[in-house]
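Form P-L/3: holo structure prediction, ligand zinc ion.
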Amino acid sequence: MSILITNIKQLLQTRNHNVLKVSGKEMKDLPFIENAYLLIEHDTIVEFGKMEDMGDTIAEKTIDATNKVVLPAWCDSHTHLVYSGNRVQEFIDRINGLSYEEIANRGGGILNSAENLQNTTEDELYNQAINRLQNLMKLGTGAIEIKSGYGLSTEAELKILRVIKKIKHDYNILVKSTFLGAHANPKMYKDNKDGYIDDIINQMIPTIEKEQLANYIDVFCEKGYFSLEDTDKILAAGVKHGLTPKIHVNQFDALGGVALGVKHNALSVDHLEIMTPKDIEVLKGSRTMPVALPSCSYFLSIPYAPARAIIDAGLPLALASDYNPGTTPSGNMNFVVSTACIKMKMTPEEAINAATINGAYAMGISNMYGSITRGKKGNVIITEEIPSYNYLPYAFGDNNIDTVIIHGKVIE
Ligand SMILES: N=CN[C@@H](CCC(=O)O)C(=O)O
Ligand SMILES: [Zn+2]
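OUTPUT (holo model):
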């Protein structure tokens, strides 16, 4: 199948060279072509340029994009999409004055989701997850990372990872899988966290390697969850078994997790709501991508990651959804991009770079995703008729997407 998109008002993120990430001042630059065309053959971008240079190019399907903007599909590098049920009651409890920490201390939070998931069959878990995934694909997400972490036992963590594996197999979308067994200390190990860490290292990680169930290893490095020492030990074990680190750090406290991530050559450090100057300094010259999750800050009313300080220090920044039942019950990347502009003072160019090419980098896939480049995957969003790309973050909460194409196929 080939698809030709014509008369595109603005074709965004066009890059001739295979740029893998953009940093600092480069993030303000979002290359685009006005009055453009784009040709996708099978699942690959093969040509693009100005309409006047299109010549007699034809395709099996032509889409007229007059007055519409075309951009790469979103690359969401941080989700917990495979969970069971919801935590609406905790949402109400927080409205009525309880904090996230107080709810967790009462046995709610991650432990609440873990209990729910342990009582959910693999089939039911899969059905809930694909429902969410299908909605996200219609909202323009064209590549996604999914974490385990709501199992908290060997059996339940493996159940989640097998569901992710089945999604990878069944759906025409790039999925990266992350093992987050160290998301919270389970009830049964209440007074024996080392016992749980032992299970993670000696049971879960070796099985994950044997069954090829994950690409990455993650830890929730935070007060009351996993300390720097715990995190160090778990990441080292993951690396020994072929898993690349990507960690949750600095959500509520700056403990030094950013430096630890850099030490382990982490692909990304995620959350970063509370950052010290030292955390920013240590990222310079590293390969580690800082990832901000503004929908989480919005939902919990906690600080936003200091995007300006990070970018102005010359660093790259990626944006992701953090879709999960507790802190971010939304995977809508359009909202993420808007919120980054509105609340974090990122320019639309910076936010779109952060949610496409840099998001792809944070999943280790930016050689094939995240920009309009010949040879990359045919993953694009075609908007409704809008005045310019600035309108996308401006019109927050609106759905301005007309069509989504993933791997060369129109999402119905
Ligand atoms: N912070 C750790 N993990 C998730 C949320 C956990 C939960 O409350 O379910 C996050 O990234 O926000
Ligand atoms: Zn998360």
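COMMENT: Residues 193-210 form the longest helix (18 residues).
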